[in-house]
């Protein structure tokens, strides 16, 4: 275990990944195996003696690769993208090589400081409000996932309302309060909101979105009024920018105004779409963010930064520190008042040096390069629209003002069951991979541009397959 | 952004890390900078244009390195170790290169399957009870941190008790139940237990440990009786194997028997010490684990696997799935009944291909190699004891039966204030790095063997410094 082995074995691994990238377009995008396949191929117990690194690398192709779903295949159009790039991988090598645990400033100052700096860079590149910069009472932090960001925001909001209500009623218990608390989100919000509400244990009310899948202030206001009339305590809302089913954008301005009036904490989940805000032409979709207490999106989805890297911004960090602060002596240090200790802003204690990934990607790509990358994906989605639109068998559904890199479609005037059979036939064909969604009682197909290898020819290929599989299905 | 750049830039990064490892012993172990140092060195905004990779790597030494606390320096004795090794870094390159998100089996089957297999390997290597193997109702999962494992276990236990109590009283609300629930842990347990209780919102009662810092069943039984008499509902206990302050081991057998009788969920947090259980001579410290519902330790602490990799085992996964299951259409797939979907066992949705790290380390080191590594650290701690023990100025405190790689000491018959001054003088000297702890009103110094580079000569060096700084302090 030494420096020489790192160089030689690392080079072998890089070579393997490079070959993988070069061949990825030729691999079947979805694994063609049955559950339990790997257990047949591997020993039942860990080896007693060390094996050669060559033999480990050799086994990758025969055991692991057959079971991989290739998220970076140019034929992968499922879910939303997950990012990847050589500078982010290099930054991860460095993070692994330094292997410090930056839970407090003193535990490795560069870890905390670089995070604050690159999160400021990112905030400025997107034109976020000043109160999200680290120079004020707020700041940015890298969370693992948008799910964790939602949960953390919800916990901070719970801490705030509990503190406020305790002033009015010192006998109030958290349990009694919890039974009255209401969280709101659109009926289009991500399942991680359900999960966060389940974890915190408060009720979640889903607001009916409009015909374009947009949550609007008027409906939020009505729900709050109803709930207050029943003695409940509305306190938190998640607004989504770029919903998972159709990439719809909640109306931040009208929702935000209601939040201000009704003293609700607004958290914005822009997991996928947030990345586009580095392009000035999409910045207007952020109008209304000035009403938010917290904001999160995933550079690990669409900004060339490998998972995990979820960029969360807080307006007032004291609510977070209040919610999470537990400080034993072995974690205390002399600089606690002059530098942020990110452990108080998150659920885990330990943290990797993840800011290196953002730093490397910003520098190796430049903001210009990142914008070009985002725009290319959006262009490819438009290209797909140009192919499917003239075809009378299909309809494009929920064409929000900005669908970004996602296109939702279905067989025109057809029952859900037929669309479900189409999706099934496409995925059994295995040349491309899509996932469906159910929106407003409609079963829809989602085509999301995901890979950095996707070009027009791949989108054309996807369209040809969709057209061909549809013809076969409809002829039955 | 292509395969060629990955190979060339990756090689540059590996070279940087290799040089770092070669020079780490000569670097000051703790960063010698003031808060805000990095902001003076970096631009205020992200670059518009791409920069060369060479310039990025060049900046590492001048900007980042001065602010790094070197956790792998042979002079680092603070906290507990965090692991590192070349095979784990190579596995991370691979995880980054493949960059699949394994939240469900179908999303990348190899990701789920390899995790189940290597977690079984690990369970067998430690002699864990059969019910923790994936072949039964339980199984292993890689969590990010022990903090998350504690929280996840607590949430599953809350879900179980709520379901049970609802049967007796269908009008029961979660809030009403929460106000009655009690979590127990030793007064020596890690701060992450406080944090988990804070997040879930239930009261935490700390059980007084005995003179050796061990929590015993008798005290737990008494606390439960008191709380039941007050109408509270005891439901969950964290037993710690290898506490952070002194590496004490709670008495699992007596605590476990109480849990069985009183229907409490016992979660075991063995974050650091758990790694030693792959050595048969320490396996007896696990006696009583048969009473546990869940168990967690961190291979990322002491088993050469880079952070993050926390190995959690569940006896019955249905409690977890009950607590976390939210299943929108875009995440459903045809194999849900035949393969585990780890997203229901954890807080985040997304997950990296972390099992590769365990697989690579097991194979590149062999169980024999891992055992040798653990034993070497324990020998080094014993060597430090052999140096300090004959010195009348010091006393070794809380010498539990097995202190593993940690030694706790203080100035004999001295006030806390003097020990605090000693710790401060040592850390201002900056040649070695320790953190203190406060145990039973005693301020103590902790010396934890942390780095894979630490040899007898380094321990000797540490002792010489401690001796020298003490002499200077006492002569004042």
Description:
Chains A, B: GO terms for molecular function: aromatic-L-amino-acid decarboxylase activity; pyridoxal phosphate binding. Chains A, B: The modification N6-(pyridoxal phosphate)lysine is found at residue 301. Chains A, B: It comes from Adineta ricciae (Rotifer). The structure is a homodimer of 476-residue chains. Chain A is an alpha/beta fold and 476 residues long. Chain A folds into 3 domains: 3-68, dopa decarboxylase, N-terminal domain, CATH 1.20.1340; 94-360, Type I PLP-dependent aspartate aminotransferase-like (Major domain) (Aspartate Aminotransferase, domain 2, 3-Layer(aba) Sandwich); 376-475, Aspartate Aminotransferase, domain 1 (Alpha-Beta Complex). Helix content of chain A is 43%, strand content 12%. In chain A, the strands form 2 sheets. Chain A has a 7-stranded mixed β-sheet with strand order 1-7-6-5-4-2-3, with helices on both faces. Chain A has a 4-stranded antiparallel β-sheet with strand order 8-9-11-10. The longest helix of chain A is centred in the C-terminal third of the chain and has 34 residues, at 355-388. Chain A is globular and about 65 Å long.
């Amino acid at each position: 275990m030494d420096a020489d082995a790192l160089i030689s074995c690392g080079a072998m691994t890089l070579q393997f990944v490079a070959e993988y990238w070069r061949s990825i377009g030729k691999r079947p995008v979805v694994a063609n195996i049955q559950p339990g396949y790997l257990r047949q191929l591997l020993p039942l117990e860990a080896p007693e003696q060390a094996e050669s690194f060559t033999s480990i690398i050799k086994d990758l192709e025969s055991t692991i690769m057959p079971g991989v779903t290739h998220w970076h295949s140019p034929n992968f159009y499922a879910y939303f993208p997950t990012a990847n790039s050589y500078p982010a991988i290099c930054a991860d090598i460095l993070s692994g090589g330094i292997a410090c645990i930056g839970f407090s400033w003193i535990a490795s100052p560069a870890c905390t400081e670089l995070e604050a700096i690159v999160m400021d860079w990112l905030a400025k590149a997107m034109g976020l409000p000043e109160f999200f910069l680290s120079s004020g009472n707020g700041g940015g932090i890298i969370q693992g996932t948008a799910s964790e960001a939602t949960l953390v925001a919800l916990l901070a909001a719970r801490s705030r309302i509990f503190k406020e209500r305790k002033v009015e009623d010192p006998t109030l218990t958290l349990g009694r309060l919890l039974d009255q608390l209401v969280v709101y989100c659109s009926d289009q919000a991500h399942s991680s909101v359900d999960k966060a509400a389940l974890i915190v244990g408060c009720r979640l009310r889903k607001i009916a979105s409009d015909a374009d899948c947009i949550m609007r202030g008027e409906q939020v206001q009505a729900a709050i009024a109803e709930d207050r009339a029943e003695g409940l305590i509305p306190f938190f809302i998640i607004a989504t920018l770029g919903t998972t089913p159709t990439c719809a954008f909640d109306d931040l301005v009208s929702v935000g105004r209601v939040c201000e009036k009704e003293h609700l904490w607004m958290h914005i989940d822009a997991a996928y779409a947030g990345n586009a805000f580095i392009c000035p032409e999409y910045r207007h979709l952020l109008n209304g963010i000035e009403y938010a207490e917290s904001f999160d999106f995933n550079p690990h989805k669409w900004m060339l930064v490998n998972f995990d890297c979820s960029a969360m911004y807080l307006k007032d960090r004291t609510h977070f520190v209040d919610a999470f602060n537990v400080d034993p002596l072995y974690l205390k240090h002399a600089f606690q008042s002059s530098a942020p200790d990110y452990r108080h802003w998150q659920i885990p204690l330990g943290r990797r040096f993840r800011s290196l990934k953002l730093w490397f990607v910003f520098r190796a790509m430049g903001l210009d390069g990142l914008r070009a990358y985002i725009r290319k994906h959006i262009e490819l989605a438009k290209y797909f629209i140009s192919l499917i639109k003239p075809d009378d068998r299909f309809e494009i559904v929920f064409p929000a003002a900005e669908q970004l890199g996602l296109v939702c479609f279905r067989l025109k005037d057809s029952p859900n069951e037929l669309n479900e059979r189409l999706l099934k036939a496409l995925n059994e064909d295995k040349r491309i991979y899509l996932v469906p969604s159910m929106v407003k009682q409609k079963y829809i197909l989602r085509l999301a541009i995901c890979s950095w290898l996707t070009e027009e020819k791949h989108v054309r290929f996807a369209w040809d397959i969709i057209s061909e599989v549809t013809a076969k299905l409809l002829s039955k």
